[in-house]
Specification:
Elements (H helix, E strand, L loop, with lengths): L2 H9 L9 E8 L2 E7 L4 E4 L7 E5 L1 H8 L5 H6 L3 E5 L1 H4 L2 H11 L18 H7 L8 E4 L5 H11 L3 E4 L6 H4 L2 H8 L3 E6 L12 E6 H6 L17 E5 L2 H4 L17 E5 L4 E6 L3 E8 L2 E6 L9 E3 L7 E3 L20 E5 L4 E4 L4 E6 L3 E8 L6
Parallel strand pairs: 1-4, 6-7
Antiparallel strand pairs: 1-2, 2-3, 4-5, 7-18, 8-9, 10-11, 11-20, 12-16, 12-19, 13-18, 13-20, 14-17, 14-19, 15-16
């Protein structure tokens, strides 16, 4: 199948999930195609005069992506795929590719950046049946066996901090200066402007950034703006393959259940507001400190929860745990918020369904592992 036909197939149903825009693909000096995505999509050879997103990638790498042998985020992180233009729209490319390879047409259009009612989850029933948890237990890795974790914390969905958990990570032992050698050729996507108020929206200001240059800038971050915008944040980037040998997968789940790990880098003051994910999470603090505010799954309604898709999955909240609006959300008075600070070397087990707000207390590098454990499904 030729490239134009592959691109036509790739974007054929992208409009059905609420994506609109013009994607320019450049495979070489004389080989380029563009796809305009609307309710009906079209793909043409050549260069579009005003594309929303421009993607430069080798033809062999692109064919590897479409064949399921190459990860598009990994290509980007390693510098083998370059993106220009609207990075918010570009961040949807993995979703478009996955939809084309596995999903086909969808029955109901998902409007991007729309809030949907949040479906209940089984984890809400589990947490509601347990005694109210008021603190997060801290256990040294040497005193918490895999068997105890799997028999107690995992099935009941109980958060726990495992201390001294990263001693076998080369990345944990490297100095900041030494680590820059490993980040030298890598790139990531940073968030800028008021990304907190635009939580989970593609309208956030995303930019492509050199990882090494971003890390080098952390000692002298830009001051907080007059209107209170947080500092730039390299959040939720795939951990590049070059760094995988610098970490260790935690032993508490079977390796086959792990989703490719993610990396989070930023100065003091970066913030991800209250939300919840749809899988279990192991969150490793490599540099610095991060503070977490947690709330149990069964507080969904009290927290003003909304979803980014009709079926739920990634759920945000309108309640600010630091300043709850009791007039608007009176039931939030009954929510028990748990506060915990992760130190360098800590590993937090954050069970599926638990709401969490995350803020960098200092310059911070974290790696997290989402896990398709199937707990409670």
């Amino acid at each position: 199948m030729d490239l134009q036909s592959i691109l036509s197939k790739l974007f054929a149903n992208a409009g059905a999930v609420g994506i609109e825009g013009t994607f320019q693909f450049v495979f070489g000096p004389q080989l380029a195609f563009w796809s305009q995505v609307k309710a009906q999509s079209q793909t043409e050879a050549g260069r579009h005069p005003a594309p929303d997103v421009t993607i430069e990638v080798a033809e062999t790498d692109f064919l590897g992506i479409m064949g399921g042998n190459v990860n598009v985020e990994e290509l980007f992180a390693s510098g083998r795929l370059k993106i220009g233009g609207n990075m918010g729209l570009a961040t949807l490319l993995p979703q478009i590719i996955d939809h084309a390879r596995h999903g086909g047409a969808v029955a109901k259009k998902v409007e991007m950046n729309t809030r949907y009612p949040t479906p209940p989850r089984h984890s809400e029933q589990v947490s509601a049946s347990l005694p109210t948890q008021r603190t997060v237990e801290r256990r040294p890795r040497s005193e918490l066996s895999v068997e105890e974790f799997r028999s107690h914390y995992l099935p009941q969905g109980i958060p726990v901090v495992i201390s001294d958990a990263l001693g076998d990570w080369p990345l944990f032992k490297l100095s900041r200066e030494q680590s820059l050698v490993h980040f030298a050729e890598l790139q990531g996507i940073t968030r800028h402007g008021d990304y907190v108020k635009k939580t989970f929206s593609t309208e956030r200001d995303f930019r492509s950034t050199s990882m090494a240059e971003f890390i080098a800038s952390l000692d002298n971050p830009a001051p907080k703006s007059a209107d209170g915008e947080p500092p730039a944040y390299m959040g939720n980037n795939i951990l590049p393959a070059q760094l995988l040998e610098q970490i260790q997968y935690p032993p508490y789940f079977d390796r086959s259940l792990f989703i490719p790990p993610r990396i989070w880098i930023g100065p003091k003051g970066t913030l991800t507001p209250l939300h919840r994910d749809d899988t279990d999470n192991l969150f490793a603090q490599v540099w610095g400190q991060k503070s977490f505010i947690l709330a149990a799954p069964h507080h969904r309604e009290a927290l003003g929860t909304w979803s980014t898709a009709p079926q739920g999955g990634l759920d945000g909240c309108d309640v600010n745990p630091d300043a709850p609006d009791y007039e608007r959300f009176p039931a939030s008075r009954d929510v028990t918020f748990l506060r915990v600070t992760l130190e360098a070397g800590d590993l937090l087990f954050l069970p599926e369904g638990w709401f969490h707000q995350v803020e960098s207390v200092s310059t911070s590098l974290s790696v997290n592992f989402w896990v398709n454990s199937g707990r409670g499904w």
